Automatic annotation (TrEMBL):
It is a multi-pass membrane protein. Keywords: Cell membrane, Membrane, Transmembrane, Transmembrane helix, Transport. It comes from Pseudoclavibacter chungangensis. It holds the Pfam family TauE. This is Probable membrane transporter protein. It is found in: Cell membrane. GO terms for cellular component: plasma membrane.
Amino acid sequence: MIEAADAGIMGIAGMTWTVFVLVVLAGLAAGWIDAVVGGGGLLQLPALLLVPGLSPVQALATNKLGSIAGTTTSAITFYRRAKPDLRTAIPMAVVALCGSFGGAMVATLLPASVFKPIIIVALVAVAIFTLAKPSMGQETELRFDDRRHYVGAGAIGAAIGFYDGLIGPGTGTFLVIAIVSILGYDFLQASAKAKIVNFSTNLGALLLFIPTGAVQWRLGLCLAAANMAGSYLGSRMAIAKGTTFIRIAFLIVVGALSIKLAYDVWTENLAPLLLP
């Protein structure tokens, strides 16, 4: 391991080249996962938490900077090739931005650990539902017309935007399954719309974090570059391979997210009670 100078790489105390490379590689992989189906934060945020001189709030804020670069890249790539309906995606994104503010405000009053057991149950239910209906999301079959369609899209944006502000991991995954199962889009079109909405939720979080000075800009911009590269590659692959590939990737990410949140619940709530 090559040790950094006293101030650390990027001016962060205790940060080494080894950790820096790990964070960048995690950003590259996270960008790819987010572009395909969402859930890249499962890799990116834990990697940032390994940086010795970074507080949890700084890690969260810097994570959002990397993520918004990736979602911007994938949103543009999907828009050019999949042509998502912006009449649905843009209102969802606006409502999700407001929802993320609301979630962040609640997060200051209630710990995320209160909600994690509920999220685990929801994820398991989503996985079972997706497996039980292999034809779901193969083709676009809209379930609502006109006003009800946009009301449903707005409700999805508000609920998942709130979740992103409150907890965060798996936001893109929840967006995809909600757009597929509630609105009736196929997985490819759902992924395209999810990227636009996820950009908005990331922006909402950054609007809260930037004024506080929590974003570590030099590290965050390096992470953003890696995230953009991964997002571009992931978007191209998802578009080329289509709905079946996205559905399989979706199930894998849902499984990983469920395990991660279950581990968090164990370490935060159950282990201290059961272990001496």
